[in-house]
TrEMBL record:
<comment type="similarity">
    <text>Belongs to the aldehyde dehydrogenase family.</text>
</comment>
<feature type="domain" description="Aldehyde dehydrogenase">
    <location>
        <begin position="7"/>
        <end position="462"/>
    </location>
</feature>
<protein>
    <submittedName>
        <fullName>Aldehyde dehydrogenase family protein</fullName>
    </submittedName>
</protein>
<dbReference type="InterPro" id="IPR015590">
    <property type="entry name" value="Aldehyde_DH_dom"/>
</dbReference>
<dbReference type="InterPro" id="IPR016163">
    <property type="entry name" value="Ald_DH_C"/>
</dbReference>
<keyword id="KW-0560">Oxidoreductase</keyword>
<dbReference type="InterPro" id="IPR016161">
    <property type="entry name" value="Ald_DH/histidinol_DH"/>
</dbReference>
<dbReference type="InterPro" id="IPR051020">
    <property type="entry name" value="ALDH-related_metabolic_enz"/>
</dbReference>
<dbReference type="InterPro" id="IPR016162">
    <property type="entry name" value="Ald_DH_N"/>
</dbReference>
<dbReference type="Pfam" id="PF00171">
    <property type="entry name" value="Aldedh"/>
</dbReference>
Amino acid sequence: MKVQEANNFTRIEVLNPQDNSIIGTVPSATKEDLHRIIEGAREGAKTAAKMTVHFRMEVLNKAANYIAENHEKYAIMISREGSKTIREARSEVKRCIQTLKISAEEARRINGETIPFSQSEGNENRVGYYYKVPIGIIAAITPFNDPLNLVAHKVGPAIASGNAIIVKPSSATPLSAILLAEAFENAGLPEKVLSIITGNGNVIGDLLVSHPAIRMVSFTGGLETGEKIAHKVGLKKLSMELGSNSPVIVLKDADLEAAVKASVSGAFYAAGQNCLGVQRVFIEEEVFDTFSDSFVEMTKRYKVGDKMLEATDMGPLINEKEAIRIETWVNEAVSKGAKLLTGGMRDGAFYSPTVLTEVPSNSVIAYEEVFGPVVLLYSIADLDEAIEKSNDVNYGLQAGIFTKDLEKAFAAIHKMDVGGLMINDSSDFRIDSMPFGGVKGSGLGREGVKFAIQEMTEPKVVCFNLK
């Protein structure tokens, strides 16, 4: 698997956000480099379409096994170039292996159906069916927060369904994607089926998404960037996961200990840089004080520091600029009347786990995705108020609700505008085989291996006239 080497000698430095040390460099590709990659992918798409199902499965399983054999190598890279602690990074490697193995299994399930043409008068002598065919070349643009598994969620289904794919990883965390390509090279995937191109999105991004040879764009990132891409792609498939402002509802009958534990973990995993991260918690007023006190106490016990230490619970943000943005948002909310219960301290790229309450609705942090270690606690009168406020943002990825009342759980299921609702769990739950995506500003289409394959294929109809 070849990583595009740029013609010029410009390189991008990959920094460890913890101390800004350089851990590697990658090429900064030009438009000319991308044109060559796309031309190669045209050949790769022809090769991929001819790969038998058993060969696709074999390659995916071999790649998964290679990563398993080099588990710690992959985990260390994820942690060094990103924000995750070494424990969080190991968890991501494990999920990546699962994603590839699920992709191998789903490759055998790309089925079609027979079509009863005789349902239409005059077509009694016609029989036929449809089957799924690959769409060609897929462009995948991935973010920094899950630099291995989110790439696998695009590459695995693409290979399983017989497509070629060009991956542009985040310039902050490209090395994990390159290691994923290494696994596929070791597994025997033919050249040009998978390409990794690194570079500045301002230079190569528009060409990548708008080039007529690209038949699908799969993007994971921010809403603003997603909207720009949507205006540029032209006539092609588009799959987008654009983040959230995830709500969790805690009713008075809930298991408060479980709710606190899950919500704290959901808020501060990967320093809060998680599209499923808990951002808003709506707590029924009768148990608000009890929940809030426990939540703050557990938050204060979080150990922030060196990502590579086993005891560390949370590392830095991806860079100091992001930490400053979060600091600005928190300070704005406090200036408008929000109460800071704990946290609110920045040290370079580190930002302490932060809990706010009484946050005014016109504060930026109340309606935008914070993508950082900040959670907002609200006291609500009842479930109806919680649902109304949960829905009152331009996002709808996932949500959680804690209750022992099935009737109330189903009320939330039917009324909440989200792509997924977790009962007695926080919003931060996902397995790699489930459909994953949201409504409103949270995106278009669904990921999750089986569902990504549906996006990456299209039906071809075959009809025999036997008369």
